Amino acid sequence: MTAATTSTFQTSAPTPLPTVDYGAFLAEHAAQPHGIMRYDLEGETLWVKKANAGNPGWHYRLLDMLAGLLSLPVLEPVPNPGGAHTIRTEIRRLHNFAAAGLRVPQVLAVADTAFVMCHLGRPGQEAPSLSNAMESAIGQGSEAVLALWSQGLHAIAEVHARGEVLSQAAARNMVCCADGAIGFIDFEDDPAAHLPRAVCLARDALNYAQSTALFVDQGGAMAQAQKQWAAFVRKLPMEARQVLERTVSRLAWVRFLPRNQSLGRDALRVRAAYDLLAAPRQAEPR
Predict the structure, then answer these.
(1) Domain segments of the chain: what residues?
(2) Is the domain covering 9-55+61-118 a CATH 1.10.620 domain?
(3) What Cα–Cα distance (Å) separates residue 130 from each residue in 52, 192, 208, 271?
(4) What is the pLDDT of residues 112-147, one digit of tens each?
């Protein structure tokens, strides 16, 4: 783990200087053409997010049916109705995370169907997602990839330790801030309001594994990551471990997928995720 990892949860994001009337800025841009847009101003970078249309009802029915058929509660859908409800959910969750000392964008102004928030990076500069950072680090070797992956795993463990869960714990929703902290974005739904906490914890773990394992594998860091993953799972509450174990058991057929490009990148991603997820089972004494 790099030295930057130790500063992952120092403080919430710095408060922007009050150079802009955020309420007026939001009113001017709330009808923007895209759901989320970045605005680089002089000395400050802002993001405006407006309400989306939500997911159609059939989407939830299909996932609910699939979860029942496979006896996999982690597949149970979390409602995202869109509109003002989704905006209120995201703002509430951003405030909750900030109150817990976790790094999230600061909400600067709110309207019924949109809000403006600060940038997690320095003004005018990129703040790469953990997903992009890991993919870029593959050419640097296993230590670079493992350091980033470990930092993300530690960040999720810290979220759980502070009583929260993520919406989608994918690496694309985790931000590498300029000071070495890991920030979190995208809170349009609230799994904890609809699913048992054990399922939410397992869901976060599965999302992270699925979104990062291929980078770990391609970076030559799978063996080291498997050890860290097994240790992470051992620290989860028993109920969450049981949810994970049942899920991995029902995915056992994945180990027969070929380790080549013949079935496409998605198949490689699933195969790598299984290799990571199965690590705790492989580590059990025989």
Answers:
(1) 9-55+61-118, 127-283
(2) no
(3) 24, 24, 11, 21
(4) 999 999 999 888 788 999 999 999 999 999 999 999
